[in-house]
Amino acid sequence: MSEQILIEREEGLLTLRLNRPDKMNALTRTMYAGLADALEAAQEDRSVRVVLITGNAECFTSGNDIVDFLQEPPSGPDSAVFRFMRALMEFTKPVVAAVAGPAVGIGTTLLLHCDQVFIAKGAKLKMPFVNLGLCPEFGSSFLVPRLVGPVKASSLLLRGEGFTGVQAVAYGIANEALEDGAAALERAREVCQAFQQLPPAAVALSKRLLKAPFIEELRRVVAEEGQHFVQRLHSPEAHEALSAFTQRRQPDFSKFL
Ligand code: COA
After folding, report:
1. Which CDD domains does the UniProt record give (predicted)?
2. 45: which of 66, 74, 130, 200 lies 20 to 30 Å off by Cα?
3. Ligand 1 pocket: which residues have CB below 6 Å?
């Protein structure tokens, strides 16, 4: 298991901590595989009652590693990122997130699939998929308009407008905005303790019922977005945007008609 994902176990609570601070916790294929393995094992392990996903006090994650996107982009449903997100979406037990600092790209998307999110007021969320020549992923084109309505969703997903932890609560993406990362983690851990006291079968059944009205549609959207996303990673627009990030310059889309 990679040390860039720290896995901690305390009684029925499994904590997955993103730990690549020198790259703002940017997620690599190896990290996604570690997260997927941990979630798949936790799904089968009856003694795990709740999962907490977090980063550190300054950063949740800057999203998918952009060098990985350029050098070895995901190719489809068997890729590690798909395996991780599938395990998260289909996880039958509660998943809680504690978020501080940047939560970019998949760092925001994955929150849409958590049951409870506790976030620092000043957290910086963003879904800059179009800005990177890509498209919404893992159900965000379905879930975000459902949460915020189509007009706001176009700001968040077409323009990649950033938003804070306070706004994430207003948008229905997070439960509570706390003073800072430490307070968000403390509150998330309290909620995890509370989940551990609840009857697990009733929790799992209720989680399934909450998702039942839309889960089939969500799976269909995830598959469609995934096909487009994988293709977009090979597009000249994405190549320009991703290369611009690694070269620390502004992208130039003027040549694209
Ligand atoms: N992939 C790869 N490396 C990344 C990264 C990413 N997604 N995000 C940050 N890094 C790296 C930087 O290249 C830098 O590495 P270096 O020190 O070797 O040059 C280091 O992490 C610190 O990042 P930096 O940009 O200097 O930090 P910052 O505090 O100024 O900005 C962010 C933080 C998150 C706003 C900024 O890094 C960013 O916008 N990252 C890209 C986010 C993104 O587009 N993600 C993909 C979404 S699909």
Report:
1. crotonase-like (cd06558)
2. 74
3. 23-24, 26, 62-67, 102, 104-105, 128-129, 132
For 121-160, the pLDDT digits (tens) are: 999 999 999 999 999 999 999 999 999 999 999 999 999 9
Q: What is the whole-number distance in angstroms between the Cα of residue 139 and the centre of ligand 1?
A: 24
Tokens of 162: 């950033």
How much is the pTM?
0.98
Residue extents of the structural domains in the chain? 5-180+196-202
Take atom 27 of ligand 1 and give the residue whose Cα is closest: 24
- CATH level 3 topology of 5-180+196-202: 2-enoyl-CoA Hydratase; Chain A, domain 1 (3.90.226)
Query: Which of 106, 138, 114, 140 is CA-nearest to residue 51?
Result: 114
- Residue 202 DSSP label: H
Residue nearest to atom 34 of ligand 1 (CA): 62
